[in-house]
Amino acid sequence: MSRQLFQQQLALEFPEEFSVPVSTHWDELKSSILTTCQNTLGHRQKKHQDWFDSNDQSLKELIDQKRTALMDFKKDPKSTAKKAAYQQKKAIVQRETRRLKNKWWTDKAKEIQGLADRNDTRGFFSATKAVYGPSTHGQAPLRSKDGTNLLKTKTEINARWKEHFEDLLNTNPVIDEEEVLGVLPEHDLAENLAITPTLEETKQAIHSLKNNKAPDDNSVASHTEAGLQATLEAFNFAYTKLGLNINLRKTQVLHQPCPNDANPQPPAIVLQGQTLENVEHFCYLGSHLSSKADIDIEIQHRLQGAGAAFGKLRTRVFRNRDIQTETKIRVNTWETAAKDRSEWRSAIHHGTKTFEETKLSKAEEKRQIRKERKRNPNRQRLPPNATCPTCGKQCASRLGLLSHQRVHAN
Q1: Is residue 370 part of a domain?
Q2: Region 224-253: what's the mean pLDDT?
């Protein structure tokens, strides 16, 4: 129903004939689509995801009842019934708040675990952002273009970003179209490609596109130093002919030598007269590649990421007294910690039980030592003049004797 309404409104907003200039045609098309979306779909409202946002109405009613009971009690402070009613409403608010908070965290943990099991990466990270809560980001200072001055004010930083994007996007490269066209190979004219696509073909092409996908950095692999040099020179040639620039500062070389190479030498790749930087490890698509072809760096970064994730939840979850221990443990099971769950769960259960038994046995042993010390005190270790003159009790210290004499004084 909403799709039909949108299409009807869009047909009414479209002009009967579009203008001839492409820029004016595009402005009219954009205005028509934007106006139709505003009238039919409306603007998107941002909804904060937290335990109280999902239960605002129920909590508001309980808080209003508690405030009413508090006002009644303040009007008559000597009334025992009104005081008891206020304390009862206050306890209900606290109990319901804890229950709703635990329920929200339990449901969120199940949701995130389900997203991880379905390999829904986008939904997983979107849900974890809601769990971590809002984050504050300050405006970091920037260096000037020549790198001599540090820009700290908002006006200077915005001007520097404007200058950066002007140099990056609004350049005027000198392109020789004949030379570029001469590089491209010529093929016979394909008449079938000149046919106007039908509506069904257009729909099929649009439906074949994947949502939430975007291009990432390029990774060029080669087995030899000469092959990598030739590949990069070909890239640089094509970029230059099309008026594009390669960022040499971000272009790095990762060399993985042969396993039996006793003295590996890093390659010297030159691009635009500048030798590219050789790095020991490089982050690509979330994974860290190492020149040693091992996973030590990857494990280290994953441990750091796990530590950072637990650190973000320290205040909101682990140190929150309103959340039950069972809920806190459930938050930790977002991703499978080990494949053999039965084994490590049994080991954790056995280790926890052993720890508790050892702790209780040591506490009981210390208690028995203290009792035995009171029954049979070591007279040689007792200080002199620590005997009570009233009852004859032998105290362990002068401070203990003074504390004991206060009993007789009272």
Answers
A1: no
A2: 83
Give the whole-angstrom CA distance, residue 234 versus residue 271.
11
Is the distance from CB of 58 to CB of 96 less than 8 angstroms?
A: yes
**Cα(284)–Cα(297) distance, rounded to whole angstroms?**
13
User: Residue 338: its pLDDT value, please?
Assistant: 43
Please report the DSSP string for 138-153 in residue order. ----EE-TTS-SEE-S
3-state secondary structure at position 304: helix
Helices (H), 170-207: 177-183, 199-207
Residues in Cβ contact with 127 at an 8 Å cutoff, skipping those fewer than 6 apart: 108, 111, 112, 115
pLDDT of residue 340: 57
- Tell me: do 275 and 176 sit in the same domain: yes
| CA pair distance 404, 409, nearest whole angstrom | 9
Q: What whole-number distance in Å separates Cα of residue 286 and Cα of residue 301?
A: 10
* pLDDT mean across residues, the chain: 78
- Token pair 């540090």 is found at 150
Domain boundaries, position 264: 166-180+220-279
Look at 198-207, 295-304, 372-381 and tell me which has the smallest mean pLDDT: 372-381
Measured between its terminal Cα atoms, the distance across the chain in Å is 88
- Bridge-based pairing of strands 270-271 and 281-284 is unpaired
Q: Does any domain span residue 339?
A: no
Q: Predicted confidence band at 335 (pLDDT cuts at 50, 70, 90)? A: very low
Output the pLDDT for position 376: 66
User: Does residue 141 register a pLDDT over 80?
Assistant: yes
SS3 state of residue 407: helix
- Is residue 58 domain-resident? yes
Q: CA separation (Å) from 285 to 67, 249, 288, 291, 354?
A: 53, 19, 8, 17, 43
